[in-house]
Sequence to fold (456 residues):
Amino acid sequence: MKSCTQNTEDGKKVFIQTYGCQMNEYDTDKMFEVLRQENYFHTDSQEDADLIILNTCSIREKAEHKVYSELGRLRNLKSANPELKIGVGGCVAQQEGEAILRRDANVDFVFGTDNLFELPRMLRKVHNGEKITQTGRHDRQKVRNFIPEYAFQQISKSGIKAHLTITKGCNNHCSFCVVPLTRGLEVSREPEHIVAEAEKLVSTGTREICLLGQNVNSYKANGVDFVELLNRLDKIDGLQRLRFTSPHPKDFHEKLADAIASLPSLCEHLHLPLQSGSNRILRRMRRWYTIDTFYEKVAMLRDRLPKAAISTDLIVGFPGETDEEFEMTMEAVRNVGFDLIYSFKYSPRPGTRATEYPEHISESIKSERLRILLETQEKIVQEKYQVLVGTEQEVLIEGNHHRKANTVTGRTRGNHPVSIHNSTEKAGELLSVLITRANPNSLEAEPSSAISFAGI
Ligand code: 5AD
Ligand code: SF4
Fold:
């Protein structure tokens, strides 16, 4: 979503390319807000831009490669327009810093994940011909208060759905993961700032908010824990749906399961990243739970909400993963019956513990394991979707179908994508629908009756 879409004759134009996770999408929105103060306006065309920023991701090697090949492509633009400024932000920038400037002479500035609010100052220097690297960490208090000067008046982004970052960084050192190195130690934002930002979003049209954090359930600030924060957000008038991603299974407790079951806006959907079904691999991943405790957490939710949707992240081909251990992951996938899985081939990341582990798995075995996993999951999703046929679901409408007339699209509270025929309902409306058909990756439905908004 772009926050500064209008064009002006006087303003400069900025193009931001976002890679990776929702946290980066959120940061990109903040960059647009900061840059708008400097009279920069959004453009969708790189050719048109005075400033191009790549907001990078380093979670897996592939994501990092994309950044360098994009920089290669931008060379032509820079030679056609020497006034063009190119900046690299995000996780690759945080980790690589100045090395990016050395590697590509066309890059003007590099800034880390805590430095996006310093963009105006950096740009002034860049326009004076300086090359800048700014990857220092803010002190904890500053991060805790992050965006104070922008939080209240500047949020113009008003999508039906919005992300809202509640914690930055991570204190878990999963052996495969680069996030603690790029985003630093965990800091929770002030609850008052989070609630104010959520209220502002709702007042400008947002109906669904997804709270973001590497480990949301360890949120704690000013004596407010995650469940208390959810309680406060749930009270916001006009906020129809609240979601969060991701909780760490080791920190998922009864209190949170109770909140999902009882808070009206909190959707009956949980993303609980399992990573592996083998206890030995989980230990080597430094995840601090076993498959049995994971099953207990799933049961904790399903005891309260038997139909709750559960999604997960899985890694195949972690160093030393045997065929039997991969089969344990497959068994977990069959046992839990996830509504959605995000599955990844293990990718060694510089500076992480697992890169030092022996017995790295060949690319061909990783690909084969991923193929088997995806094939099985496809069947599970088909069965899950089939069960939904004939049921009534509440859908938040996101817009018109991109091809079909008289058809709108949206998501159920379980986050399943649905196309609704014979409806011209507007984006942002809640609609009660009857599911009529299950496709491989989506559901089809007809409207049953409109549910009216309370308080809007
Ligand atoms: N290799 C593969 N997948 C990874 N993830 C994180 N680091 C790696 C890595 N080095 C996956 C995990 C995490 C998700 C966001 O990305 O499954 O939950
Ligand atoms: Fe990475 Fe683990 Fe932290 Fe998630 S919990 S961000 S996988 S270190």
